[in-house]
Design goal:
Length: 262
């Protein structure tokens, strides 16, 4: 059986925990064939980001044309875009209907605190998103209001969903919610809280990338958005749990995408 093809448009993480590398691992773990368009090259590891080199918009467009001209891509996710010019190139493809089931992960700040994107770049893509997946810091940057509680997550998700994306998931991995990890899904006239036990681990690098990549795989398989989001949350929870005892790097390590620790 031919696997479903999914595309990631994102930056490279030399440490392999996030970005293109994490996305391709998720695609493989969930049974999809992964293709990629690089937007930037980073020098990073579990301790942080040391350097970022954005690629020219023309190079991004050439990669897009090459992949889309040969593969029947069923879903697309974006991560780090780097510059508004690159975002314009990607948004042009989305506007032309070339990026089906678009999942926008608005990567603005790395787990280490290093700034990887700008709000203006993300805003160019949001009108074309089937699903957008900001964390609380990114949701605050996009709405211009604090997002530090579950109530504020609900307000941010609803505000962002009203402004472009069909659905918005504000992820709350860093919000204290009585031992739970709570995400807020808004869209289609409803708002849902997705809950899971909080996983106590330092291995959380690439959680947002992995979550959005898993959503894209499930959308490509035909799941409705609420099912795709819930399934992706379950996958990330398992991946976080599996990596709890790992000793990879000295900082925030990667997830267990393939169930190696089970």
């Amino acid at each position: 059986m031919t696997p479903t093809t999914v595309l990631t448009i994102a930056g490279s993480d030399s440490g392999g925990g996030a970005g293109i590398q994490a996305d391709l691992k998720v695609f493989a773990a969930l049974g999809a064939y992964g293709t990629s368009v690089l937007t930037a090259v980073t020098a990073q590891n579990t301790r942080g980001v040391d350097a970022v080199l954005p690629l020219p918009p023309r190079t991004v467009t050439e990669q897009l044309d090459s992949v889309l001209g040969d593969f029947a891509v069923r879903a697309v996710k974006t991560g780090m875009l780097g510059t508004p010019a690159v975002a314009d190139a990607v948004a042009g493809a989305a506007k032309a209907g070339r990026l089906p089931h678009l999942v926008v992960d608005p990567v603005l700040v790395a787990t280490s605190g290093h700034r990887l994107g700008v709000v203006a770049a993300v805003e160019r893509l949001l009108p074309y998103a089937r699903v957008a997946t900001p964390n609380c810091v990114e949701a605050a940057a996009l709405t211009g209001r604090p997002v530090t509680t579950v109530g504020e997550m609900v307000a941010a998700a609803q505000a962002l969903a009203a402004g472009g994306p069909q659905f918005v998931v504000v992820t709350g991995g860093d919000v204290d919610a009585a031992g739970e990890s709570v995400d807020v899904l808004a869209g289609g006239g409803t708002t849902t809280l997705l809950r899971a036990p909080r996983v106590d681990t330092r291995h959380s690098h690439g959680t947002g990338c992995s979550f959005s990549a898993a959503i894209a795989v499930r959308l490509a398989a035909g799941d409705p958005v609420p099912v795709a989001v819930a399934t992706a949350k379950e996958y990330v929870t398992r991946a976080l749990t599996g990596a709890r005892g790992w000793e990879l790097g000295a900082g925030r390590g990667p997830l267990d995408h393939f169930g190696w620790s089970r």
